[in-house]
Design a protein that fits this description.
The protein is of the alpha+beta class. It is built from eight helices and 14 strands. GO terms for molecular function: acyltransferase activity, transferring groups other than amino-acyl groups.
Length: about 325
């Protein structure tokens, strides 16, 4: 199916992505991975589309098929309007697949730079075969999207503050990520993120820690041996000062990932607590409208966590694909 890349024209919207973001908003939640990418603070994101800057419609239903894509440096996110088209026909899906194929190839041929590989992420089921046929690779890591509007979260989780941090119920301290946390966070991540990437996300990382120092009220019960941590699910007492108990990160596409709870601190509700703490920060300080995560069907603990924080589920799977660059010439594909 490899459509001729030269048949698709892409327009640069990087300097003014707001009209595309408004358009994507009309296709939520189907457009959530890309909409959130364009709404998440961080490094500038190149944004391209098959729509010219002066021809962006107001509604996803109001135009012929189009593709919007964003370059996160090591990954692409894309959305095709046919995904959200009501009562779409098989022929419309086939035509849109040609457009998707051509847009992806065109972008990767023209903007690969010095990169020798690129991932395409959050590929919905409807385009899985298109990506397979276009690039000759098998998409992997099927996940469902769990999401919810942030407007419905409780107003606050905190019951106090310390210098540069907040205190959650039970005295657990929540802070942003620190540079010295990177090695530990990466050691617990299922995805091999480079340290340099995680360093750019520390401001968007929430870490739950034991208190930084003993106080008169807890000194009698504190111990330097975390194996003797008490059974009270709401207290960090018993852990060494400033121990990382749990953490999670908002990635550049706005999804929450790298969530981990220390094995010695599990079954105390800290996964829910750190997820909600990060969600509060996204809503109150980062302007996010939605919180979402990619979760494998077979990950029972993560699915239970998603249910506990009131997430809806996409009902379809998304996939990832690794593309070797540079792409071969058209006549070699």
């Amino acid at each position: 199916m490899a459509a001729s890349a030269s048949a698709v024209r892409l327009y640069d919207h990087s300097s003014s992505p707001a009209p595309l973001r408004s358009l994507l908003r009309t296709a939520l939640p189907l457009s959530l991975p890309l909409y959130s990418t364009l709404s998440t603070p961080g490094l500038p994101t190149p944004v391209w589309a098959t729509l010219s800057p002066g021809a962006v419609p107001e509604n996803v239903q109001d135009s012929p098929p189009y593709v919007i894509l964003a370059d996160l440096g090591n990954q692409l996110r894309f959305f095709c309007s046919t995904e959200a088209k009501r009562d779409r026909t098989d022929d419309e899906v086939k035509d849109a697949a040609v457009l998707v194929s051509g847009a992806l190839r065109q972008y990767l041929r023209q903007h690969a730079g010095q990169r020798d590989r690129m991932s395409i992420g959050a590929i919905p089921d409807i385009w899985r075969q298109t990506v397979r046929d276009t690039f000759g690779v098998e998409p992997f890591s099927a996940s469902e999207i769990h999401y919810r509007l942030l407007a419905g979260l409780p107003d606050t989780l905190t019951n106090g503050s310390t210098k540069g941090a907040s205190v959650l119920p039970g005295g657990i301290v929540t802070t942003k990520g620190r540079k010295e946390d990177v090695a530990e966070i990466l050691s617990n991540s299922e995805v091999p993120h480079p340290p340099s990437y995680l360093e750019t996300r520390l401001a968007h990382t929430t870490v739950l820690r034991s208190p930084p120092a003993q106080t008169p009220t807890n000194a009698a019960t504190c111990t330097s041996d975390p194996r003797t941590a008490p059974s009270d699910p709401s207290t960090p007492n018993g852990f060494p000062p400033d121990t990382i108990l749990a953490h999670c990160t908002t990635h550049r596409d706005g999804s929450i990932g790298t969530l981990h709870v220390s094995p010695l601190a599990r079954r105390r509700g800290l996964g829910t607590l750190v997820y909600l703490a990060r969600s509060h920060t996204m809503r109150d300080s980062e302007g996010a409208e939605y919180v979402f995560s990619y979760v494998h069907k077979e990950n029972e603990s993560s699915n239970a966590l998603m249910r506990s924080v009131g997430m809806d589920k996409s009902g379809y799977e998304v996939w990832w694909a690794r593309i070797k660059l540079p792409l071969p010439d058209e006549d070699e594909a």
